[in-house]
Structures are given as structure tokens and as C-alpha cells.
Design brief:
heterodimer, A: alpha/beta, Rossmann fold, Alpha-Beta Plaits, 6-stranded mixed sheet, about 25% strand, B: globular, ATP-binding (chain A)
Chain lengths: ~300, ~270
Amino acid sequence: MTSTLTISHLTKAFGGVKALSDVSLAVEPGERVALLGHNGAGKSTLMKVILGLIAPDGGEISVCGAAPGKARSKVAYLPENAAFHSALTGLEQITYYMRLRGEAASGAMELLDRVGLGHAAKRRIGTYSKGMRQRVGLAQALIGHPRLLVLDEPTSGLDPVSRRDFYELLDGLAADGASILLSSHALTEVEARTDRLLILSGGRMVAEGSLPELRREAALPVSMQITALNGYDTDIMAALPDAIRLNGGLHLSCTQEDKLATLARISAMQEKVADLEVIPPSLEDIYSHFSRRDGQ
Amino acid sequence: MIARILATAVTEAHIARRNRWVLIAVALMVVFSLVLSAAGSAPTGALGADRLSVVVASLTSLSVYLVPLVALLMSFDAVAGEVERGTLPLLLTYPVARWEVLAGKLLAHTAILIVAIVAGYGVAAAITIAADPAAVSGLGALWRLTWTSVLLGATFIGIGYALSSLARRVSGAAGLAIGLWLGLVVLYDLGLLAAVVADDGGFFTTDVFPAALLANPADAFRLFNLTASQATAAASGVGGAAATIPLWQSLLSILIWPLVSLALAALAFRKVEP
């Protein structure tokens, strides 16, 4: 099967400032890909180029086998901070979007029920909370059967339960073969709910792969927190010259390869150790590692 | 295509109804028409025309100011509002052409304008005919005024869309719309009159002045209605020089202007980068 989205060597500059440089990526059918990056890294610009809203300066893009903006009936978009006309009701807004996509407007109510807005369908969007507006945005992205969903921070403003429901919706769509490209700042939920991560920094793609792959590539040190039994901390310090005192305990960092050897040395002193905690590099650490490596 | 235009029109109509634009437009037209028909029914006998034709002449002078104003008020927000609310990028990722979006908005706004115009003129005509049944002979003039008012309104709706696309900010679009209204409807005529007086029957009065009148949609509208009902002498402030312009020329200007302004609007909207 061919990729739903293919981008090669994409460049885009705004008035001499490079927003994207030499970005290449591919998203397969049924794949859920998370796009990470600090503010201004080029995530929204990349999405707008994919959607055909802004023209790239160079590079090639194929969306559902066509140029960006030419296969709009197969692509759904959820903008960051989804906004709608405050004078319309949720039902009117979704009905409008369904008609634009050539879908029967009779399904609008069902769609709003699916995102948990059925009770507020006949109220004006102006009276909605941010989370409710976000759900109107989600509802419109589900209209028809999009092959590619481009979601810009889809879970911002949603409570934890709504987030879980949202990712379940996405799982269903991906199982049907839809490709999903989403950006997010909530790293932990992205970790559990996507197949692959892309990290943008300063307009460049600095890392790509599944979380274990990125973890290996980053090769960040493992931290250990040792709590010594009364009075034995100097002994342990002597045995482990890299250790430092921190918050009343002993703190130690070592590389992934040295991890087991270090643990063996600590367990050899088990009569002097009260407790040991091993802290692997967090997703945040890996993310900062990649987004700082280039350009920052 | 038709379905998408209609869907946009229905949505715009909802918005206009909620924002009270329908109410404001209708109320403006009705109130001013009432005032004019009350004031215009006094001097009938002296002119030798039926009462309704006199009212139509007054309504023409009113509509030249009011119809463009209502049209601009409804349209200045059309594109700039979407840009400022942030609703435009999402809309443009839908399988809908930009001209279809504009066509849908135009349909809704023109429909509201027609309702307002028909309500206003209808009230004026009803009162006049009730007072003098012989006034029905002026219905032809009223009908002419009605459809030319709709075309004048469509022209200014298109201009409003174009300004809205160019400004990209609601406040900027509002300023441009008011400025343009003042310029085309008020200052343009004052400038022409001043030039005619200063020129004193020379080249400007004979050649430039008629062309300048035809180039302005509001002047062409006034010219057409007053010439057609031969009421130029009765109500036109533009004066005798205008009477020399053949009727077909002002008609042509009225018919072409909506197309020009809508083409400008489509062109300006295409340049808007979300």
C-alpha cells in the first residue's frame, strides 16, 4: 500500500526566516504519528502546508496521491484552538460542515452525540466552554471518512476522561485505515497512544521513530537515588566516586550500558543501603535532548 | 456546487438573523420610507405627477444613501471576520471553492437586502395608494426602483467583500467601508458639483461630467431612476447636465457594476492567505 502522506525535502520561509527546512516524512495508512516540537518549531506551518493553506517554497508533497489542497474531501483538519462563529448553534455548525462535505445533514445529531455534545447541540457556540468548542472541532474532523486527519493539539482543553475517549475514537479510525498526524504538548498521552514520534526543532526534523528507538538513540543517562542506612553514606560515597549528595540522599547517574554493573556494585553493599530507586530518562528528557541538539 | 452555496447561504442567514442584521436592515428601510412618504405626499398637485411617482423620486434620493450603507454594514465583516475569528483556515480545508463561499454569503446578504427593500418600499407604496387610489399608475416606477435598488445593493455588498478581503481586520474593513461610502455617495457628488460650477459649461461639464456620473454606481442608479420617471427636474440635485445622458447608458452601468464588484471581491478573496 502506498503512503497516505509523503513529504520530501520541504522548505518554507516567511520573509527570509526559515520556518521549515528540508523536512521529509511519510505516514502510512492506519498509522498514528505524533508531531512534537517547542512553540514556533514549525508544527502548525507544516500542517498548513500539508492542507494546502500555504504554498511551500520547495520540496515535494503528496497527500492521498494528489497535491496539497487537491484531495480536500479525503483530508480532515482540526486547527489549534478551534474557533467557530459564536452566533451559530453546535448543530447548525456541524450541519453546515456536513453539507460542505456532501454528507446527509441528518447525521449531525448523531455525530455530536459521539463527541458528547448531544445535550448542548441547540445552544449557541458562544455559550460553550473551551473543551466543548474543542469537541465541536473533533466532531467536524470525523465527518465523512477522511483518509488523513491532521490534528493540531487536539486534546488541549479536554479533561482526562474526554482525552481517553478521544484517543479511543482515533484508535477506531486508525483501525479502519485512516492516517493520523497530530501535534501535542502532552507527551505522556502521545507516548501511549501513537505509533511513531516526529520531533521538529527550529524547522528541522531532528528525530523520528518509536519511543524505544528514540530512547536508545538519545542514550541519556539513568539516574539512581540511593538512601543510605544511618551513617553509611560516606562508605557508599567512597565505593561510588560519581555519587553526589542531594536532598539528604545520594544521587548517581550512569549510562545505559553501565546500568547493570552499577546496580551490582550497589547490591554488593546491601547491608548499608536502605533503599534504591532507578529512574530511566523520561519522555520529557528525551524530547528536550532532541529539540535542543540542533539550532537552539 | 449548488448544495455548497446553499449551505453557506443558510448558515449566513442564521448568523445575520442572530446578529439582528435582518431586523436592523428592515427597520432602517421601513422607518426612512415612512418618513419620506409622509413628507412627500404634500406637494403633489403642483407637479402634475401621481403621488406614488413623487414618493418614488424621494425614495430614490433616500436609497442612494441608505442601500449602499446597509449593504456595506452587512458585508464588511464577511472575510475579515472569518480571518479574525480564526474560522477561515478550517473552512478553506473543506472541499469548497472560495468563490462558492462568497456566492453563498452574497445569496444570504442579498436576500436580506431584498426583504428590507421590499418592506420599506412596500410600506411607502401602501400608505400612498391608500391615501390616493389613482397613485397605482406609479407602480411601474416603484418596480423599477426596487430592482435597481437590489442591483445597487449587490454592487456594494461585493465592494464590501473586496474591502473585507483587503483589510483582513474587522476594524480596518469597517473603516474602509465607511470611508468608501462617504466617498462614493456623499463627497463624489459634491466634488463633481464644485467642478461643474468652476468649469462653467466647458469641456469638463460636457464630456467628463457625464462619464464621471456613469462611473459611480450610486450616481448611475439615481440617474437611471430619475431619467426613467422623467422626474429629473423635480428631485435631482445633480441638475440639468445629467438629463443629456441617454437612459441605456445609466442602465448599462447599473447592470455591469454588480459583476465588476463581485469579480473584484473574488479576486481580493483569492489573495487572502489564511
